[in-house]
TrEMBL record:
Organism encoding this protein: Paracoccus caeni
Known pathway: Organic acid metabolism; propanoate degradation
Keyword Isomerase tagged: no
Name used for this protein in its record: Methylisocitrate lyase
Any one GO MF annotation of this record: methylisocitrate lyase activity
Length: 303
């Protein structure tokens, strides 16, 4: 049913629903959803929670992932995904958009927009994708102060601290930072850009009792593992941050090439979501039924 009717709205906060999903048996699988439509499709496939990637978000805007978008721009995406799906959402908070006060502002804005969780990273601006080279790290104490600020500002938003230290400081550095971030108030740790199964296993062994998130991004430094394999390694969450955007972009590229070649979309029809499928997914008739002045739409008859 549409989100417009109160009876269809969640009765508990997004943060509490994210925690509940995380506490259920098995690994929490968080597919990336860069807009409301992707969120609806992920929900229809059976997912219980979602991830909003900074890389996917900025790429959908035609921008690189260098920490150049604003809190309000991210909140726009959070609102549409939370509204469309009603699912708890983990949001990429980059470096927190500044220092402690900026982090607190981000937490309040994201939570008000409908986020259930956020992760902060220990890079300096301009930040880079975690799987790229020569990332600049913030001091561990400075990052811990941001985590503490985030924990102080939240109502019940889940705070995940991401560390990019493995590439430059090794596992020892990443684990030491993670321990400091947990002490500062992080609910979970996201060790980014681990390059082997052995590294994932060692991080798990050295952070007993700490919730851990794995990043399964394509074309990156991490070996291709399944959700089941991450679960067997002891990880509690796994994200596929940019997968949906990559697939959508490749399909659009093919569409535009077909239009240039043929001057028509005919060859692409078998690969398109139909009008009926689209209307069913977005609940067109259910929305129409809420207003007696709107005649129920009837699909065009196609030969």
């Amino acid at each position: 049913m549409p989100y417009l009717t109160a009876s269809d709205l969640p009765t508990t906060s997004a943060g509490s629903r994210f925690r509940a999903a995380l506490d259920r048996p098995g690994i929490l699988q968080l597919p990336g959803a860069q807009n409301g439509m992707a969120a609806l499709q992920a929900k229809a496939a059976g997912f219980d929670a979602l991830y909003l990637s900074g890389a996917a978000m900025t790429a959908s805007m035609g921008l690189p992932d260098l920490g150049i978008i604003t809190v309000d721009e991210v909140a726009f995406f959070i609102r549409q995904i939370a509204r469309a799906s009603g699912l708890p959402l983990l949001v990429d908070g980059d470096t927190g958009y500044g220092e402690a006060l900026n982090v607190m502002h981000m937490v309040r804005v994201f939570e008000d927009a409908g986020a259930g969780a956020v992760h902060l990273e220990d890079q300096l601006l301009p930040k880079k994708c975690g799987h790229l080279n020569d990332k600049k790290l913030a001091g561990a104490q400075d990052m811990a102060a941001k985590v503490a600020a985030a924990a102080r500002a939240r109502r019940d938003l889940v705070i995940i601290a991401r560390t990019d230290a493995a590439a430059s400081e090794g596992i020892d550095g990443a684990v030491a930072r993670a321990q400091m971030y947990v002490e500062a108030g992080a609910d979970a740790i996201f060790p980014e850009a681990l390059t082997s199964v052995e590294m994932f296993r060692e991080v798990r062994a050295r952070l007993p009792g700490v919730k851990l998130l794995a990043n399964m991004t394509e074309f990156g430094r991490t070996p291709a593992l399944t959700a089941k394999e991450f679960e067997e390694l002891g990880y509690d969450m796994v994200i596929w941050p940019v997968s949906s955007l990559r697939v959508a972009n490749k399909a659009q590229e093919k569409l535009y090439a077909t239009l240039v070649r043929d001057g028509a979309t005919t060859a692409m029809l078998p690969e398109m979501q139909t009008r009926a499928e689209l209307y069913d997914l977005i609940g067109l008739n259910e929305f129409e039924a809420l207003d007696a002045s709107i005649a129920q739409s009837v699909l065009p008859q196609v030969d």
